[in-house]
Amino acid sequence: MLTDSRLHTRVEADFEVRVGIPGDNTGARIVNISLGGIAILGNQALEQVLKNGYANARGISDHVVSFTIPGGELSEVCRLVHVRRLSESRFEFGMKFVGLNRKNREIISNYVNRHVV
């Protein structure tokens, strides 16, 4: 039997997300969230921004993501950890929170706790 070895419980979500500063709103949506990070559904334009836009010399790609969740508006730095192509023009992006602040950690924790099945 396979088990989920994630450190943090994740739950389904449906939040509009903006990536970068001032924030590229390409219709991307957060589809799940945990204290560890988020999964975003987006298009090819977002794939180009995330994969090619801001990688450092080691190939690490960090981005500011902003979204509204019950309990507050969050703006956090996330690291792109995986990209999965779902169709010709749709992608899933796995983003890890980098240095989640205490207030936002509490907001996300409360959301996750209310939505655990």
From TrEMBL:
Domain of life: Bacteria
Domain PilZ as annotated: residue spans: 6-113
Any single Pfam family the record assigns to this protein: PilZ
Protein name: PilZ domain-containing protein
Source organism (scientific name): Amphritea atlantica
Source taxonomy: Bacteria, Pseudomonadati, Pseudomonadota, Gammaproteobacteria, Oceanospirillales
